[in-house]
């Protein structure tokens, strides 16, 4: 009984309130565990605020991932964003956009003038407006096997905002097909379901094309 008293005293802060032990002082030979939990349970409960390790990793195991090509890690994407992206080089289809009559009628002279000055779309104010007719002309995806091909030009809608994913698709952990199969949808519900902990606005900031207008996607 005296040994138990000493153990409790070592874990108090002077206020007679029990203090949760840190990981570094847990003795694996100690048998006095609350509710008989093992060392592994206590360790993960301390880190994850009483959330079991099984619950925290199950969603990751269940997600279908594809093997990305070399040079397509999150760090590689960040490098592309901070080099090509800030200069507006991640947006495909801009030359066609400048000659699109529907686009020219829909947008203000101020916005079009900035586009003609090669200002990156994410910096243009007022934002460019893109409707369904224009969007569909920029949803062509052939392949990424031929890096000399200029046919790929893929835009999508996320929460009413148009992004160019032409460069990003090869970086998507879930693969290309899952995104291109949803081209007629606003991707926000899908994104929130699978990537709710990621800020797509930050991830795709330099892929921003403009605001989706006209009929809403369902």
Automatic annotation (TrEMBL):
One of its GO terms (molecular function) is metal ion binding. InterPro entries: Cyt_B5-like_heme/steroid-bd (IPR001199), Cyt_B5-like_heme/steroid_sf (IPR036400), Cyt_B5_heme-BS (IPR018506), Cytochrome_b5/Flavoprotein_Rdt (IPR051872). It comes from the Eukaryota. PROSITE patterns: CYTOCHROME_B5_1, CYTOCHROME_B5_2. Keywords: Heme, Iron, Metal-binding. Residues 127-213 form the Cytochrome b5 heme-binding domain. One of its GO terms (cellular component) is cytoplasm. Pfam families: Cyt-b5. Belongs to the cytochrome b5 family. This is Cytochrome b5 heme-binding domain-containing protein. It comes from Arxiozyma heterogenica.
